[in-house]
Structure to design on (198 residues):
């Protein structure tokens, strides 16, 4: 287990939850890194935004989900790193367990680090996370284009914001969170998964 997944493992009882175990870390072979956005109906509905970095999924919980309107700043609360195998997970986390509730794969695909591509920048994802200034191009089924994850404030006041970059994929009229609510993996709604697997 990588040190990054200690917190993930500590929070979970793998005899109880159907979530992937930490031993499945690194299950995916290298190549183009993946992103996933999981819709998670826990005590409150939110969207878990995850980027593959260094063999794990760096994660944030986004209460409102992503917006394609570049004027919107969506709060993104950092959460523990998840194993790569988590990108395929949908199911029901039993009551009493950490994150109890239903998870679907709302969107997923690959991404590019835009900062690494800039000649006058070249920051790796690790550097970008450290600096609190991530810029990625997402190639999902619902969500495409450039997105920034920006850390503002320091210490207790630190917070991350998920913001659509101004590019050809920005679209203030489209709101896939509302119009495309179901899983890209199984086509199921979160209610259907809850009913079938709960
Ligand atoms: Mn969650």
């Amino acid at each position: 287990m990588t040190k990054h997944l200690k917190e993930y493992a500590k929070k979970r009882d793998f005899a109880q939850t159907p979530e992937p175990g930490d031993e499945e870390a690194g299950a995916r072979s290298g190549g183009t890194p993946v992103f996933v956005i999981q819709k998670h109906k826990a005590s409150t509905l939110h969207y878990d935004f995850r980027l593959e970095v260094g063999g794990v999924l760096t994660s944030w919980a986004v209460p409102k989900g992503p917006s394609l309107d570049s004027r919107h700043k969506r709060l993104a609360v950092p959460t523990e790193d998840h194993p790569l195998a988590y990108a395929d997970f949908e199911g029901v986390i039993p009551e009493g367990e950490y994150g109890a509730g239903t998870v679907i794969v709302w969107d997923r695909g690959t991404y590019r680090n835009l900062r690494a591509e800039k000649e006058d920048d070249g920051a790796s994802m690790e550097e970008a996370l450290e600096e609190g200034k991530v810029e990625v191009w997402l190639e999902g089924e619902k969500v495409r284009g450039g997105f920034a994850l920006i850390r503002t404030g320091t210490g207790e006041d630190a917070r991350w914001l998920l913001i659509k970059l101004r590019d050809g994929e920005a679209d203030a009229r489209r709101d896939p969170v509302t119009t495309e609510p179901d899983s890209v993996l199984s086509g199921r709604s979160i209610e259907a998964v809850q009913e079938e697997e709960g």
In short: The chain has five helices and nine strands. Residues 190-197 form the longest helix (8 residues). The chain has a mean pLDDT of 93.
